[in-house]
């Protein structure tokens, strides 16, 4: 009997120690976010503006001031279709991109009404050096960033598809834009946008930490802004990776805290 009680006590002690060990907190894995914008200059960024070759910062459209990246129109008299993009000079495939943005001024003259308080984070972009001289947008997927116009609802974190198509709820989306479920942000308040990009699988948009849109299976599709034979030959192929770019679309604005977390 004594031997049985001792054996039971040993088993109980082992169980207690095992349970205690399992309840220990596992060390947290720190996420390694990398700043793409250093807050000082435009090193590692390439500019492409319609009507001008890649690498030319036409009329200082993109500048750095006070630690933020600005879409700047001080040298412009009117917009005149000078659609622009600034590309980070590295290809990414699986990642989370996060930044803050805000609109800070009046839209330029001779700009389309739809472009007021309008910008975007372009995902899986073509190389800016491959863009035609008068090309408005790169072949890509656009996470559209919109600002409110004072009264009516105007969601941000939307989806646009220049030269691409995706699945939303198992339906192929080829129309220009698809609205997210985000709220409207009026005025010049800072808004945080984040996208989780999983190669040619699933892409998710988040606005101020709230999940607002999911889509999948991005492909090269018709209506392409770039008409050359290379992209025609790629019709229907998956968009697996590419550059990241930010837009200039006729309203002054600012970006900051532009960072990326590459995923396995």
From TrEMBL:
3-keto-alpha-glucoside-1,2-lyase/3-keto-2-hydroxy-glucal hydratase domain: residues covered: 32-260
InterPro entries: AL/BT2_dom (IPR010496)
A single GO molecular function term of this UniProt record: hydrolase activity
Pfam families recorded: 3keto-disac_hyd
Protein's recorded name: 3-keto-alpha-glucoside-1,2-lyase/3-keto-2-hydroxy-glucal hydratase domain-containing protein
Source species of the chain: Flavivirga aquatica
């Amino acid at each position: 009997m004594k031997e049985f009680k001792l054996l039971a006590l040993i088993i109980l002690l082992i169980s207690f120690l095992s349970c205690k060990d399992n309840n220990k907190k596992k060390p947290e894995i720190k996420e390694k976010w990398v700043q793409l914008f250093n807050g000082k200059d435009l090193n590692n960024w390439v500019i492409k503006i319609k009507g001008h070759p890649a690498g030319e910062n036409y009329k200082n459209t993109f500048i750095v001031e006070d630690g933020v990246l600005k879409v700047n129109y001080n040298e412009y008299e009117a917009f005149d279709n000078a659609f622009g993009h600034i590309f980070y000079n590295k290809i990414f495939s699986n990642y989370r991109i996060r930044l803050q943005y805000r609109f800070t001024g009046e839209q330029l003259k001779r700009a389309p009404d739809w472009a007021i308080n309008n910008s975007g984070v372009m995902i899986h972009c073509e190389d800016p050096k491959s863009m035609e001289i008068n090309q408005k947008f790169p072949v890509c997927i656009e996470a559209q960033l919109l600002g409110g116009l004072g009264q009516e609802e105007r969601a941000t974190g939307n989806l646009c598809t220049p030269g691409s198509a995706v699945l939303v709820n198992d339906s192929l989306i080829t129309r220009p834009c698809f609205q997210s479920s985000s709220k409207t942000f009026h005025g010049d308040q800072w808004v945080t946008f984040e996208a989780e990009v999983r190669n040619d699988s699933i892409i998710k948009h988040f606005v101020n930490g709230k999940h607002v849109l999911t889509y999948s299976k991005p492909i090269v599709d018709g209506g392409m802004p770039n008409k050359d034979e290379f992209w025609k030959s790629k019709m229907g192929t998956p968009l697996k990776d590419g550059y990241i770019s930010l837009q200039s679309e006729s309203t002054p604005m600012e970006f900051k805290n532009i960072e990326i977390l590459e995923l396995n």
